[in-house]
Amino acid sequence: MNPDWPQGSPSLSQNAELRAQLKELTSEATTDQATRGATSLLFRFEESQVPELKKALEAPVCEFAIINLTPNHPPRTADSPFTKSMHKTYTDCYHYPGFTGGNWSYAVNTNDTSGVALALDYGVDGAGGAAAPTDKGDHQWNGKEEEEEEVPEPERRLACYYLGWDTIEHHQEFSNTPLFFEEINKLAPYFGPGTGAWYVMFERHTDSLESGPR
């Protein structure tokens, strides 16, 4: 976290100074002055998926594995072999030491790994204060997409796997096993541009109201 960001706020989501700094971070000038470079990718999870998803986000290492499918991928019906492979490449992780949990989903707002351009309304007024909340609970900072239409479910091709690991080495070891390649070899012919994986190490920020007196 930026050391200059305010700490110990009663509510980070209502802190005008922090929100103004977040707006600045997402408003870097680009050739597209209408959106100024900020984009979003929206992944939706069922309530039943959240407990395992939380394990990935709270793991020492969270891996974001992106599979951007090419348009010519096999049918993605509920019981198709291709759909089963897309899911099994995630569940196979549970059979390897060091995996803590996770889940996966298709992006609902785009098939472009660059995301959907955001409009200029970032939920912060001109003075840096909090704007009125929108009715879109998925947007923590009240951003809104330039294109609001969702990609029809059968046409979604951008999958993100949220995978928790004790260490990066655990995943690297797993990625050299026959179990890893069992499904990857079936899916690889349909990997499009942007397919890859990134490691993130999150640090929890505890709000002063949650942590109590110091």
Write up what this structure looks like.
The protein is an alpha+beta fold and 214 residues long. The chain has a single domain (15-202), classed as 2-Layer Sandwich (Alpha-Beta Plaits), CATH 3.30.70.100. It contains 6 helices and 6 strands; from the N terminus they run αβαβαβββααβα. It has helices at residues 16-25, 50-57, 81-91, 168-174, 178-187, 208-211, and strands at 39-40, 61-68, 99-106, 116-117, 158-165, 196-200. The strands form 2 sheets. Strands 3-5-2-6 form a 4-stranded antiparallel sheet. Helix 3 runs antiparallel to helix 5 (178-187). The two termini are 20 Å apart. Mean pLDDT is 79; it is low at 122-147.
The low-pLDDT segments are 122-147
Indicate the CATH architecture. Answer: 2-Layer Sandwich
- What is the string of SSEs from the N terminus onward? HEHEHEEEHHEH
Beta content comes to 15-25%
| Tally of discrete structural domains | 1
Q: Mind describing the biggest β-sheet?
A: 4 strands, antiparallel
Region (Disordered): 129-153
Biased composition (Basic and acidic residues): 135-144
